[in-house]
Amino acid sequence: MAKYLAQIIVMGVQVVGRAFARALRQEFAGNRAAADARGRAGHQSAAASNLSGLSLQEAQQILNVSKLSPEEIQKNYEHLFKVNDKSVGGSFYLQSKVVRARERLQEELRIQAQEDREKERMPKT
Q1: How is residue 64 annotated by DSSP?
Q2: Does pTM top 0.90 for this prediction?
Q3: Residue 73 contacts by C-beta under 8 Å, 6 or more apart in sequence?
Q4: What number of other Cβ atoms are within 10 A of residue 4's Cβ?
Q5: Residues near 95 by Cβ (< 8 Å), separated by ≥ 6?
Q6: Is residue 54 classed as helix, strand or coil in its secondary structure?
Q7: C-alpha 121: how far from its chain's center?
Q8: What Cα–Cα distance (Å) separates residue 91 from each residue in 37, 59, 61?
Q9: Which stretch of DSSP H or E encloses residue 92?
Q10: Cα(74)–Cα(93) distance, rounded to whole angstroms?
Q11: Which range is least confidently modeled, 10-19, 21-30, 37-46, 96-105?
Q12: How many angstroms separate the CA atoms of 41 and 44, rounded?
């Protein structure tokens, strides 16, 4: 009886171990694909996405902006921040998402300005 119980336990551990290893491989593959996608957007942009927890596309969707215009970002930010204020029945969670989206878009604007300055400094050939 103990022999059969031990075999069942060993077999169960093997099945769970294989399933865990397969899930881990899938997670690594997904992370690699996401990193490749962020890599195409530039290293600084990918780092900003990691720090803020929002991708550029997510931030643009949250603030409903299609192009990176500081005026449009600020206008939409102010509106969404006021609408989601807790004192008027809004959601603190949504308000914090709006703030993070604005921070992410401002960081992207800063990165683009820095890249533009670096391009201007390069000697023309």
Answers
A1: T
A2: no
A3: 63, 65, 102, 105, 106, 109
A4: 8
A5: 80, 81, 84, 85, 86
A6: coil
A7: 31
A8: 32, 18, 18
A9: helix 92-121
A10: 19
A11: 37-46
A12: 8
25-72: pLDDT as tens digits: 988 888 777 766 655 555 566 565 666 678 889 999 999 999 889 999
Q: Identify the structural domains of the chain with CATH numbers, from first to last.
A: 1-121 (1.10.287.110)
Task: Return the number of other C-beta atoms located less than 10 Å from residue 62's C-beta.
Answer: 21
Q: Which residue has the tokens 């969670």?
A: 93
SS3 90: coil
> Residue type for 106, please?
Q
Tokens for 10? 């060993």
